[in-house]
Amino acid sequence: MIRIDFDYLERHFPRRPCDAHKGTMGTLVSLTGSFGFAGAAVLSAKAALRSGVGLHYQVLPESIYPLFGGTVHESVCVPVKGNDIGTLCKADIPAISASLEKATAILIGCGMGNNGATAEVLKAVLSTAKCPVIIDADGINVLSQHIHEIDDCKAPIILTPHVKEFSRLSGLSVADILKAPAKVAEEYSMARRGITLVLKGHRTYIAQNGEVYENIAGNSGMAKGGSGDVLAGVIASLTAQSAESLKAAVMGVHIHALAGDIAAAKLSQTAMLPSDIIDSLSEVYTKLEDAIG
What pLDDT shows up at residue 152? Predict the structure, then answer.
């Protein structure tokens, strides 16, 4: 098992080319948010944009478009009709598929809802994806009921569950996972080769094909709803910018944790919010850019 530190980031974080433009810095397409959970889409989008992706397309139910569009000004919004409970649905798949043609990475799940309609959307994405897919939150809860769908997916997949979500996904009890999370992550990544697993917790473990990384940065002030959405956005952004899945996951977890520590130092673990983690990302990236020159 490898413990992640800042030296890892220095070795693997890509230099931003001086001749870069928005078309060369990756295109992330997010399928996140639903009625009542617009905040998940906002947080993941802002984290992705703050993490350097060139273009961000947000596919979202039209019921949350005014809130999202009025809050996140840098995303290209693709409002779709959705269904009567405000989630993406089967009727939206043609518009979703058209948007995915632009993608260098896809983020799906944050606040999108767990129902038959979102299951149809996830199935469509996995069956047609040509670039890495990051699956978080409700996406994982949907996937746990249709786990065979990842077997035929030809694109790399990054899963970012917390312990309860991973319990649903793996069939293991929460108690068994907590007894030996590193071992559990290793075994799952061996059983589903090619999948990158980010098992979130007090210590987060990232595993792929039996290779395991441990993150010990971060703090309990990050134990608030929305922090996972921020992490998903960071990882998805790095992936869209052509980082290999395992490196994107490892870097994203550590960058997110360091930003959380900066936020806690400024605001306290009690008062800090997930949005403060996003605001602190710039300090981590400034330090990184200074280090790599």
Answer: 84
Here the tokens at position 192 are: 């589903």
What token pair was written down for 199?
């098992």
Ranges of residues in the chain with a pLDDT under 70 are none
Residues 6+ apart with CB under 8 A from 201: 162, 163, 178, 181
Q: What is the DSSP letter of 148?
A: G
Q: Closest Cα to residue 30, out of 95, 101, 106, 81?
A: 106
- Residue 164: the pLDDT is 98
> Is residue 84 within 8 Å of 71, Cβ to Cβ?
no
Distance CA 287, CA 213 (A): 22
- CA 167, CA 172: separation in Å to the nearest integer? 5
Q: What is the pTM of this model?
A: 0.99
> How much of the chain is in helix, strand and coil states, percent to nearest 5?
50, 15, 30
The reported pLDDT for the residue numbered 151 is 87
- Give 233-269 as a 3 state SS string: HHHHHHHHCCCCHHHHHHHHHHHHHHHHHHHHHHHCC
Q: Which residues contact 9 (CB under 8 A, 6 or more apart)?
A: 251, 254, 255, 288, 291
Task: Tell the residue number behind the tokens 């929460």, with chain if given.
Answer: 174
Instruction: Put the strands of the sheet holding 133-136 in their side by side order.
Output: 2-3, 211-215, 204-208, 195-199, 157-160, 133-136, 105-108, 27-31, 55-61, 76-80
